[in-house]
Amino acid sequence: MKIGLRIIGLLVLISILFMACQSSNDGDGEDRLLAKVQNKSLYLSEMDGMFPLGTTSEDSSLIINAYLSRWIKDALLLYEAERNIPSDLNIDKLVRDYRASLIRHNYEQIIVEQRLDSTVSQAELTAFYEENKEQYQLETPIIRCYFIKVPLPVPESSKLRRLWNSSSMGAFHSLSKYCDEHAEAQLLEDSVWYNVEKIAMELPKGTLTADNVGSKREFTQRDGKYQYYFRLFELKKRKDIAPLSYIEDQARKVILHNRKIKLLQEAKEELYDRESRRDNIQVFVE
Question: Taking residues 122-146, what's their average pLDDT?
Answer without folding.
Answer: 96
